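Thread: "does anyone have the structure for this chain?"

Original post by V.I.:
We have the sequence but no experimental structure in hand. Need at least a predicted one for the grant figures.
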Amino acid sequence: MGSRALVLIRNISWFVMNTSHGFVDRARELAPMMRERLASYVHHETPTGEADALNRLADVLGERYTALGAVATRIPAPAGDHLLASWGGAEGDQPYVLVLGHHDTVWPIGQLGARMPYADEGDLIKGPGVFDMKGGLVVFETALEILRDCDTTLGQQVRILVTADEEIGSPTGRALVEQQATGAVAALGLEPPHPDGGLKTGRHGSTRVRLSVRGVEAHAALDAGRGVSAIDELLDQLIHLRAVAAAEEQVLYNVGTIRGGSRTNVTAGEAVADLGFRFGNAAAERRVLKQLAELRPARPGASVVAEILTNRPAWGAPSSNALLEEAVRAGERVGQTVTGAPALGAADTNFAGAAGVPALDGFGPRGRGAHALHEEIVGESLVERAALLASLLSAPLPAGWRGGA
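Reply from O.Q.:
Generated one for you, tokens below.
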């Protein structure tokens, strides 16, 4: 290699490293504003299904993305609009990174208050939605602000899709995620990371099932022989499904809710259970779902129907992960050690990863307590994650990734 080439490489390396160090400095300067925005977003309480509340926050996010140079589009949905924004070019004319987020939370309106107040304590920030995942939304927009302020271009076009129903399995958001993932060079999720800050390189599949049973009502004493208890049938089916799940190495099974029956002296005519399954791989998922579809009643006169409410396919971690390697290099440029490992939880990145799009999740801030009263994030991690994401978004991803694995 000639001396001029070596000098050029050194100059490029110096520019990249110094620009990336500037990312950290700018992220730290923006920290007070990040905290203010997070407080604002949390005070926009956005339970899944509360369309007016979700749309008010979508208005704020859309204005924010537009101010950062995006073309923002609202996708109407009955239970709350989804939001798509693009930077760096018109749709379809170049490769793009797809960023996935959501603005719904599990918390009802009124949760923010005496029972679960918002509190910025410096080291920790607490409140409904700070961890899952309004902190991640703040990280993303700040990463773009860092790039703008440091006069650094995106490595390729960036799109963000913010869904309104992620917390219930994305029944209306799924089609949009799959549509936008088609042709994406990579997909990045703004969900929380592992407790140690590690990124998520794969996720269990998640399927919500409603098991509905019909029996025959009759007087439980005077006409017991005519009655067929839907509750007894449901219990037998749940025990059977427990054995089905136990026979698999990578399947988790949870009975979330049960309801049914009318009176203690009447055999139950109806009973319903909502179930949650987690699948470590696609093969186990197929086997269990096949058995669900083939359920038969254990007693004459009863009927059983298994209805899949939502399904996120298993996203298996690849044996070699070029996208994670790129994230490691992005971390090195901002003084961070980046790691990655598969996760049990499911999210919208499942749809992209299961379709073969290179994907990573967990770019939100570190913390704990998703869906719990002690939900909180580490305040300094807002700065760390914004700098990391800015570094990654500034890097051109290798040619040939588009549509690849």
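V.I.: this helps a lot. The longest helix spans residues 3-29.
O.Q.: and Residues 1-15 have pLDDT under 50 and may be disordered.
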